[in-house]
Amino acid sequence: MADGDVPFDQRDGFIWMDGKIVEWKDTKVHVLSHGMHYGSAVFEGERMYNGKIFKCREHSERLHNSAKILDMEVPISVEELDKLKYEVCEKNGLKEAYVRPIAWRGGEQMGISAQKTRTHLAIAAWSWGTYFDAEKRDKGISLKTAKWRRPPAECAPTQSKAAGLYMIATLSKHSVEREGYDDALFLDHRGYVSEATGANLFAIKDGKLITPTPDNFLNGLTRQTVIELAEEHNIPVEVRHIMPDELGSFEEIFLTGTAAEVTAVGKIDEHSYTVGPVTRKLREAYEALVRS
Ligand code: PMP
């Protein structure tokens, strides 16, 4: 059986959990954990390239910030977290890895209030190739606009990488996958184009890079990196709201995310795009940077 086919809870290896390295299969969580009943969990998704975690510190800081937004506290410091992520990769013999720290509220208290709960922490790492099918990724993946919309920042902790926020992402992704699309595109509550289910969006028009203002979705670390790379390559960048009726006028579209990296989009609803020179240039620049 290929590694990718083995269910996640039955793999071999080691996970750091609540203070120690534990056999992968023995990392158990109690059924009455607050995190499971009320979605009080925050997590990170990081990639190690050739033995180095890209933006390691920024991811650790974001986990702390995500927790703070949910009124939780990660039980270890940013510095300790940085060190432990490397230890977990080393213990699993990984130099190319996806790293997943997760913090969640325990089972000391049941009900909405969670003042008495302890925040648990686990760090896992495994080999994970391209997020989207590698062949599709080169041709450009297909997106369909989701029925669900991203909520306003007044109605959800949108700047936290909080587990609960992914509920509409899973529903939307299932719905479009059943119709043969690779991912869903969210509009926000105002009807502006926001992001895909787990990646930010960029559009190219007349040589200019346009990306939505991250005022109610995660301002991804890959998004921020790609904006910097575009500026280094003298590609003008415009951060602004995008209306869905503009989608037909763009020449290229791509997504960015730690898992998705830079992924070209070939289609959104009835609109088609080429995997053009700007997408290719920024993808190459990103691939070079993460391995530098
Ligand atoms: N939006 C969502 C909803 C995500 O889950 C992710 C992945 N963390 C991103 C955007 C991209 O963030 P990053 O580039 O920091 O991985």
Can you walk me through this structure?
By secondary structure, the protein is of the alpha+beta class. The protein has 2 domains: 3-126, D-amino Acid Aminotransferase, Chain A, domain 1 (2-Layer Sandwich), CATH 3.30.470.10; 134-290, D-amino Acid Aminotransferase, Chain A, domain 2, CATH 3.20.10.10. The chain contains 7 helices and 16 strands. The strands form 2 sheets. Strands 8, 9, 10, 11, 12, 13, 14, 15 and 16 form a 9-stranded mixed sheet that branches. Strands 1, 2, 3, 4, 5, 6 and 7 form a 7-stranded antiparallel sheet that branches. The radius of gyration is 19 Å and the shape is globular. The model has no long low-confidence stretch (mean pLDDT 96). The structure holds 4'-deoxy-4'-aminopyridoxal-5'-phosphate. 4'-deoxy-4'-aminopyridoxal-5'-phosphate binds next to helix 6 and strand 14.
In brief:
It is built from 7 helices and 16 strands.
**What would CATH call the class of the largest domain?**
Alpha Beta
**Ligand catalogue:** 4'-deoxy-4'-aminopyridoxal-5'-phosphate
Summed over residues and divided by their number, the pLDDT gives a mean of 96
What kind of sheet is the major sheet? 9 strands, mixed
Multimerization status: single chain
Q: Uncertain runs with pLDDT below 50, 5 residues or more?
A: none
Number of structural units classed as domains: 2
H-E order: EEHEEEHHEEHEHEEEEHEEEEH
CATH fold-level assignment of the largest domain: D-amino Acid Aminotransferase, Chain A, domain 2
Q: Which second-level CATH architecture of the largest domain applies?
A: Alpha-Beta Barrel
